[in-house]
Amino acid sequence: MTPVPGRPVRGSRSGRPIMALLDLLGRRWCLRVLWELREAPGSFRSLQSRCDEVSPSVLNTRLAELRAARLLEVSEEGYRLTAEGRALGERLLQLSSWAEGWAVGLESAQAPAAGAEPGAVRRRRSPLKAGPANGG
């Protein structure tokens, strides 16, 4: 069943729209299908290929859920994002950009400082305090 705002979903009984969206996006292959369709529409077979050979039954289920959520539709070109799906795609690009910076921060926090003793704890500057390293 497609998660719907106003109803309980996996991990939440609140019915909040964000929880319904996160439930939907957290399903296997869902984000990948949306990500692949942000560039261009695709047929079932092309989507299956673009999604690393996802099984036909899983892809069919995800496409049905995304259609029910009005994030994609079927056109002469195949499956494509709706206006809502494209808007979500823009926000996913922003999230992707944020995630890149987050990953770099995690890597640098885990890398030992030059000249530090093995096992030494590195102090990090608070991201909330202004300073040269924090854009202030």
Word description of this protein:
By secondary structure, the chain is mainly alpha-helical. It has a domain at 17-84: Winged helix-like DNA-binding domain superfamily/Winged helix DNA-binding domain (Arc Repressor Mutant, subunit A, Orthogonal Bundle). It has five helices and two strands. The chain has helices at residues 17-25, 30-37, 44-50, 56-68, 83-110; strands at residues 72-75, 78-81. A two-stranded antiparallel ribbon has the order 1-2. Strand 1 and strand 2 (78-81) form a beta hairpin. It starts with 16 loop residues before the first helix and ends in a 26-residue tail after the last helix. Mean pLDDT is 85; it is low at 123-136.
Secondary structure layout plus pairing:
Blueprint: H1 17-25, H2 30-37, H3 44-50, H4 56-68, E1 72-75, E2 78-81, H5 83-110
Antiparallel strand pairs: 1-2
The average pLDDT score comes to: 85
Instruction: Quickly count the helices.
Output: 5
| CATH superfamily caption of the domain at 17-84 | Winged helix-like DNA-binding domain superfamily/Winged helix DNA-binding domain
Low-confidence stretches: 123-136
Order of helices and strands: HHHHEEH
Going by helix content, strand content and strand pairing, the class is mainly alpha
CATH architecture title of the domain at 17-84: Orthogonal Bundle
CATH class category label of the domain at 17-84: Mainly Alpha
Topology, number of strands: 2
